[in-house]
Amino acid sequence: MTLDARERLIVALDLPSVADAEKMVARLGDAVWFYKIGYQLGFAGGLSFASRLIADGKQIFLDFKLHDIGNTVQKGVESVARLGATFLTVHAYPQTMKAAVEGKRGSTLRILAVTVLTSYDDTDLAAAGYDMTVGELAAARAAQARDIGVDGLVCSAEEVTKLRDIAGPGMALVTPGIRPAGSAVGDQKRIMTPARAIEAGADYLVVGRPIVDAHDPKAAAEAIVAEIALAAGK
Ligand code: C5P
Question: Which of 3, 93, 102, 126 has its CA 20 to 30 A from that of 183?
Answer without folding.
Answer: 3
